[in-house]
Amino acid sequence: MDIQYLLWLQELRNASGGVFDEFFNGISKVAVDLMPFLPFFIFWCVDKKWGYRFITTFGLAGLLNGILKLTVCAYRPWIRSDLIEPAGDSKVAATGYSFPSGHTTEATAVYGTITLWQKDVRRWLAILGGVLIALTGFSRNFLGVHTPQDVVVGFASTLIIIIAVDKANEKIDGDEKKLDGLSFIGLLVVIAALIYIMVKPYPMDYVDGKLLVDPAKMMNDTFKACGAFTGFLAGSYFERHFIKYEIPEGSKNLPILGFVGFLITYSWKEFFAPATIVAALGGHWGHFIARFLMWFFVVAVWPIVITKNAD
């Protein structure tokens, strides 16, 4: 049924002449290319506590998504059926195994947290967050790169994390000892995840003598997630105990400093890290270290720069 549903959507794409392809491709790209940086800006410039919640949710969701992908090892729709032809260049961003959807996971982590944050303040923004989650999830089906179950589980698993982070935040309420304990547990989870994904068996299916899907490449995104969350854990410990960052509200330089921080992290993620550390150390540990450095920079380094340059 899932493949038949995607084929039906494919017929709609073809019948419409692809008029909606770029719209839904844009929805997908925004969810993973731009929105992941919003939690950083919120942490630096808007609300530190909610910034922490955004980053925690996003990091945990990415980690869980990676573990689930490498556990299930579901092939992409166009591999399961040669009748599926994804729209445009949507296959480029469709990295890793198929289940669950990484785009839906990231969209739910950011837009879902926005919805929780703004539901009693700016209801229109909360509603918009929900709409964007739905559009992102549907876009993955419409473009032919994910099945409905990929999208549903990506949404559901991230929703569970959003709720768990919300409940944990209420119980911890800034207790540094509890935060340190959770950070230590988080580090153990990352170590266990790395061991698990490196020692578990993976499907090795060949077609015409060629490996259908290379498990080594499929592991890259999970190494990114592990590195990012480890960088966050280390950075948050350093920030909470030594920096104790306070947003310089009213500073004229704050928006500019936030934008510069975005440019630095975006450039590092998209250009400099792949050309340096990843090129030197390879897709696994290169990505791990690159994301570690980026998230540590976000939580522990750039706040110092902001504090020193705020007027």
Low-confidence stretches: none
What is the 3D form?
Answer: globular
Which sequence of strands runs across the widest sheet? 1-2
Mean pLDDT over the residues = 94
Q: Major sheet, described briefly?
A: 2 strands, antiparallel
Instruction: Report the count of strand segments.
Output: 2
Helicity, in percent?
over 70%
Radius of gyration: 20 Å
Q: What is the H/E string?
A: HHHHHHHHHEEHHHHH
CA-to-CA gap between the ends? Answer: 60 Å
Global structural class: mainly alpha
Number of H/I helices:
14
What fraction strand? under 5%
Task: Briefly summarize what is shown.
This protein has 311 residues and is mainly α. Helices cover 75% and strands 1% of the residues.
